[in-house]
Hints:
The chain has helices spanning about 45-65, 85, 100-105, 155-170, 180-185, 195-200, 210-225, 225-250, 270-285, 295-310, and strands at about 5-15, 15-25, 30-35, 70-75, 95-100, 115-120, 125-130, 135-140, 260-265, 290-295. The chain is an alpha/beta fold. The chain folds into two domains: about 5-105 and about 295-310, Nucleotidyltransferase, domain 5 (2-Layer Sandwich), CATH 3.30.420.40; about 115-295, ATPase, nucleotide binding domain (Nucleotidyltransferase, domain 5).
Amino acid sequence: MDLQPNLLVALEGGGTRSQAVLMDFEGHLLQSFISTAVNTNFVPFDQAQQAVLSAVKNVLDSAGAVGDKVNYFVSSLVGPRFGKETFSDLCPNTVYLYYPEMSVVFAQAGIYHPHGVGVVAATGATSWGVRADDGRQLSLGGWGSLLGDEGSAYAMGLSGLRAAACAYEKRAPVPTLLVEAISQHFNLDIRNFQKELVFLAYQKPLSRAEIASVAMVVTHLAEQNDAMALRIVTKVANDLAELILCAARRIFSPDECFDVVVAGGLINAGELILRPIRPKIIAEFPKSILKIGAEIPAVALGHLALYNLKEVGC
């Protein structure tokens, strides 16, 4: 007698990494696996396809699960879509569902019928506005590192690197330990900081994800009241607030009540990021409710799909 429960695979990913999770129909997380980037603005299509194949194969293998027991396969990928043509050998009996990134951001805060503004501040930054009453939607940002991504970890990391270059030449407007911290982060010889950082940036070269990783260095120094790091964090937080407000102004009036969901790795900095954002939003939209999208994106995607399958039937 086959006692293996019905299963759901949720696959989420973007320009830094992808993740597959295996869940049962009660929403319990059984296994997860992280793979590489899938956004085809930054990686070739074939590489993205191999990344998602690796994620799904490994999550099934790690759980000892049989692919033909996967009833639903739900995905939300920034860039490509992969379905039956990619996964039919692994999951031959599944139904494929797709959700946009906006839905996942709201779902990270447990919101499955969104009415408000959602923003993701990760390697890149994008905001969305959606009205539940009339169906209006919009998105702002998402231009990538060359054209935008204000309010993102990439923007913070790049600002940190540039500030360290100024500090090394004693051109920084305020005191900072960014040179020492970035040397430690990338294992550079501080005595040869310029040559080694230039080589790392241009010859290696540094990837978007590696530049974004410097955001952790900046926020760590800001927590220690490093003056330059605090300036950078405040600038990025203000940019993120403006991304939220621009979306809100387009579809909500100041006296309306709606949710504002902030999600993404940069939000792990907590009040360093949230403190400058909160008063700006309240000043213009006093009835808005700020919520944190804390659930892992792939898990939130799975819960969203299960909610719709059970409550809505689709």
